[in-house]
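As a warm-up, study this chain.
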Amino acid sequence: MSALIIFSLLVLLMLTGMPISIALGLTVMSFFFFLSDVPMASVGLKLFEGLNSFPIMAIPFFILAGNFLTNGGAAKRMIHFASTMVGHFYGGLGLAAVLACAMFAAISGSSVATVVAVGTIMMPAMQAAGYPKKFSAGVITTSGALGILFPPSINLVIFSIATTGMSATGPTGEPVPTASVGDLFIAGVVPGLVLALLLGITTWRRAKKFDYPRMVRATWGERWKAFREASWGLALIVIVVGGIYTGMFTPTEAAAIAAVYSFAISVFVYKDMKIVQVPAILRNAAAMSSMLLYIITNAVLFSFLLTSEQIPQAMASWMTTQGFGVIVFLFLVNIILLVAGNFMDPSAIVLIMAPILYPMACKLGVNPIHMGILMAVNMEVGMCHPPVGLNLYVASGITKMGISELTVAVWPWLLTMIGFLILTTYWPTLSLWLPHLLMH
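Now compare it with the structure written out below.
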């Protein structure tokens, strides 16, 4: 009954058009005030604890780093390097866009930032080279979603925050530790590379089928020059991921280093960003960070409400008694997350659904790291399908295409992503191989 009241109230408030963060907070406060014995003082304490978290500091720093890189010339040089490497294949500029999105995703951690940075440069270039607008829009919109999966993915940080401190038990009642940000980051590497490869194959096949243009093969000298120019940006991947896994610094410290490094190369190395532009970039990063942190705070309260009412544990017990196995559970998880993607942005989905699904997954023996990657892949698909696919709206602004037209354009790549989602769901080794290799 408590679960029915909570979710009915949340849905009702969201249907009024109220922002998801306020709907979450109002649901929690209303339930605690009218239907619970939990003192309001503990709610205030939980509100403070929601933001008083060291891992949470990684989010504004990674957002700031992404903003510096988007405005500072790193994206432009990565795109040029990608073009010299794969431009001579069928659909060369399309393949270069996929490769550039993968590289930029690995230093920005943001899907939207990747679409903006690569799309604003590649879409006009592809159209000037004779590619159809639908083809270029489909490539950029879907490849930009790699930002959710590759480290330093902000979405994976949010999953770790949403599940930290939750008491979950395994199939035999043993306590299950939550997935750390570092473990999730390294788990995202192999799936990210596989998805980038699959999107590249889809791009190549369509380009070959319709005989789209190819670039002149670059010489090794041109490739080396392009690599040297892009190396400052590419080095950030090594610094962030390498630093975390050699124990030199934590993911949060890596985020701070990434922000300072991005500022330094944008202003003093590439010199594409002027000092006078920095205040505006700081304001944009602060606005995006505050929006996310406000959602996180209210979502922490929502998680506290669910835990205090024992709702995830009750649902886990119910699923166990119904005889649902791992296969059925993971199928239902995918359906729930894909449906939620029609109404909410990825951050809100993870913050609301992770505390509910995580204890149930652990009870059925699903690895927490696998669960985090599975949710990230679902969010990638959600970013690219209507009506609330954020990448669709960003790409629409760049291409001046309607959402319905873009939906048709992304369909071949979206089918590839759905196939990859099924692979990730039922082959956990894809996500767990690299973390297990590094742990042992």
